[in-house]
Amino acid sequence: MKATMDKLVNLCKGRGIIYPGSEIYGGMGNTWDYGPVGVEIKNNIKRAWWKRFVQESENSYGVDAAILMNSRVWEASGHTTSFSDPKMDCKFCKTRHRADNLIEAHSKGKVNPDTMTNEEMEAYIREHHVTCPKCGKSDFTPIRTFNLMFETSRGVTEEGQNTIYLRPETAQGEFVNFLNVQRTTRAKVPFGIGQIGKAFRNEITPGNFIFRTIEFEQMEHQWFCKKGTDGEWYDYFKKAAWDFLVDLGFDPEHLRYKDHDKLAHYAKAACDIQYLFPIGWSELNGIHNRTDYDLSRHAEFSGKNMEYTDPVTGEKYVPYVIEYSIGADRLMLAALTEAYDEETLDNGETRVVMHFNPAIAAYKAAVLPLQKNLSEGARALYKKLSKSFMCTYDEAGSIGKRYRRQDEIGTPFCVTVDFDTEKDNTVTVRDRDSMEQIRISADKLEEYIAEKIKF
Ligand code: ATP
């Protein structure tokens, strides 16, 4: 793989994919704004995910729940008490670190801090003289746990204010609507609820571009099934999550499953799919068998009966949940990494090209008049194509330069309008990956592109 984080950040900034957040004010650490090209790619990623896990899943339904939820939700889910990371400060340079990350980096992944208590982590760091990545000293404060939820307050007067939270995951919006969705759709278990939305975490060590940010989007799918069938469904979603990535164009050599060594007390099984990011193998998504924990907790805290009644047998039970969760931004970073390529051309020049799956490319086609005096016909074609797909139009600079610009943002097809177009209504279509050109009738263009961008 040829992508480095620096190359990706520079390309994204220069080509309107992703800019640093609030840049004119000097930025705001670990926030990023998607530009005209980036927003299209990210929307296409979300669309592809939704199509696969909601649209094409016979018994799955979508929701779009509120970001701000009743604070009791976070008590029931356990986030107010235990959604925290083990934080340590370097006494020397005052930088803040996650103890588990320090141990993982120091042991080069050989020691798994997930199975250690805070005391064990402190002892390991002391005994192995683990050093601060910033200043190289080994002198840390004891571990303190730090809740990752962003707090805000609700109410118009100071006295009337109540603490509420920006949701740290989208999953709870699906759990609290379990009964609503089941009743209104008359869904029979097993069925699924999918959601795409923003989540917020006051991460101690955000960074690595859009890998870990404090505001991000999650794509989550909860599958409600009967106890006893949960193992089968867990395996099913492990495979479905993998297949989705491979169908998006990921090389299976760049993906691997990683079972969790330490399970949450309620979880029966959990695994991640890791991707070979420029920072090394890291979590891309998670699949968890959450048992009946979430619905049972919400039943306990809300006082509502969360049981499902089997319409045939009359049996009542609280379903088990198989959760599949993936960050849209993290998947975007993986897709950027996977697509990035530098090729040496016959003339010795290097071309940077993003080999995105055409389904997620920002623009499906770029319409380019060979010369400016052909712009009238080219613009008309651009307008026509834009009714069906996101397209772009470019008449500035040599045709070679214009091809390069499109390659860098991964536009799968460049459509060139030339003098013959005026005569016989044909255009040249250049393929991004092979750079081969074919001549086709402008009337056939829409059908040709539609076929190639299917997901
Ligand atoms: P990590 O171990 O990386 O902190 P996690 O196990 O806490 O992640 P989950 O709570 O399972 O992550 O969240 C599901 C998915 O949401 C992750 O697999 C990842 O793709 C994404 N995600 C989680 N935290 C962030 C973040 N801070 N920034 C961007 N994406 C995130």
From TrEMBL:
It catalyses: tRNA(Gly) + glycine + ATP = glycyl-tRNA(Gly) + AMP + diphosphate. Pfam families: HGTP_anticodon, tRNA-synt_2b. The keyword Protein biosynthesis applies. It is an enzyme of class 6 (ligase). Substrate binds at R98, E169, F216, E217, Q218, M219, E220, E323, Y324, S325, I326, G327. It comes from the Bacteria. This is Glycine--tRNA ligase. It comes from Candidatus Protoclostridium stercorigallinarum.
